[in-house]
Specification:
The structure is a single chain. By secondary structure, the protein is α/β, with parallel strands linked by helices. It has a single domain, classed as Metallo-dependent phosphatases (Purple Acid Phosphatase, chain A, domain 2, 4-Layer Sandwich), CATH 3.60.21. The chain is built from six helices and 14 strands. The strands form three sheets. Strands 1-14-2-3-4-5 form a six-stranded mixed sheet, covered by helices on one side. A six-stranded mixed sheet has the order 6-7-8-9-13-12, covered by helices on one side. Strands 10-11 form a two-stranded antiparallel ribbon. A hairpin with a 2-residue loop joins strand 6 and strand 7. Helix 2 packs parallel to helix 3. The N and C termini lie far apart (52 Å).
């Protein structure tokens, strides 16, 4: 009885979207605040009208920029749905990377597999129309950061960008080194799955802030304890939210970079539940470091 009640609540909680907010003091002294809407793991299907409507309404926040860390799709016909959800935000400066579920359609799998380590890709999965999604996002002016570099101007400031394709699929190839753009205030790193190898390269490359998704915040968490798994080799303390990596946060005296991992907005359509881990988007406010 208790298990059935927990499962029923998990299905309800998967639709209880919430907007988080966090301040990231990473800009040079005297810089104006810049707001960045971090979206991740929408996992859209044609039937997820509630999620589409919720994402569309985020345009009312008028963020200075949008960063999308992948896994937008969960169905072969989901590109028009994703574009509908993102359309009110596409006139904003933006950047994106892809996740495994932008490339391949999910299939039924046991949730228990995650306790044995990161999930494995099966070659029999159907390929999704990711190139169509890519062309729409880049056509709107968003920067494609899959194994690439770029710049983005937001809030009157220029940001140097570096990104990787999905490490969970082994598609990550860190782009060749380059100096931070002369007019940029900081370097932002963008990736889907926050594997330690990617984070190490980002930090060595001079990134001050890295944004990632993939973990679903653990998806099913223990109240008062937190996540049990991350579906990658990141520790569970950093499964969602803002932290320092590899050590203490910069505002706590550490020499780490900032890491923000989004718990994301969706789930696999074959595991449509969350427990003690509400689906989320985050409005990050980049501020001047003290």
């Amino acid at each position: 009885m208790l298990g059935a009640a927990g499962l029923a609540w998990g299905v309800v909680e998967a639709g209880r979207y919430v907007l988080r907010r966090a301040d990231v003091p990473a800009l040079p002294a005297g810089s104006p605040d810049v707001t960045v809407l971090h979206l991740s793991d929408l996992h859209l299907t044609p039937s997820r009208r509630d999620r589409v409507a919720w994402v569309k309404d985020l345009a009312a926040l008028a963020p200075d920029a949008v960063v999308n860390t992948g896994d937008n799709l969960a169905h072969v016909e989901a590109v028009p749905v994703a574009v509908e959800a993102l359309a009110p935000l596409l006139d904003r400066p933006g950047a994106f990377v892809f996740g495994s579920n932008d490339y391949f359609e999910p299939r039924p799998a046991s949730p228990l597999q995650y306790f044995g380590g990161p999930s494995r890709h099966r070659s029999s999965r159907r390929e999704l129309p990711h190139e169509l999604l890519r062309s729409i996002l880049t056509g709107s002016g968003w920067v494609d950061l899959n194994n690439s570099r770029g710049t983005m101007t937001a809030g009157g400031l220029t940001f140097d960008l570096v990104g990787t394709d999905d490490a969970h699929l082994g598609r990550d190839e860190f782009p060749a080194g380059a100096p931070i753009a002369a007019d940029a205030v900081v370097r932002l790193g963008v990736t889907h799955a926050p594997y330690l190898s990617v984070l190490e390269r980002m930090r060595a490359d001079g990134a001050s802030v890295v944004l990632a998704g993939h973990t679903h915040g653990g998806q099913v968490c223990v109240p008062g304890y937190g996540a049990l798994v991350t579906n990658c080799d990141l520790d569970t303390r950093r499964v969602k939210g803002l932290s320092g990596w590899p050590g203490r946060r910069p505002d706590e005296g550490g020499d780490s970079m900032w890491l923000h991992v989004s718990a994301g907005l969706g789930t696999s359509p074959y595991a449509p539940f969350r427990f003690a881990c509400r689906p989320e988007a985050t409005l990050l406010t980049l501020t001047a470091a003290v």
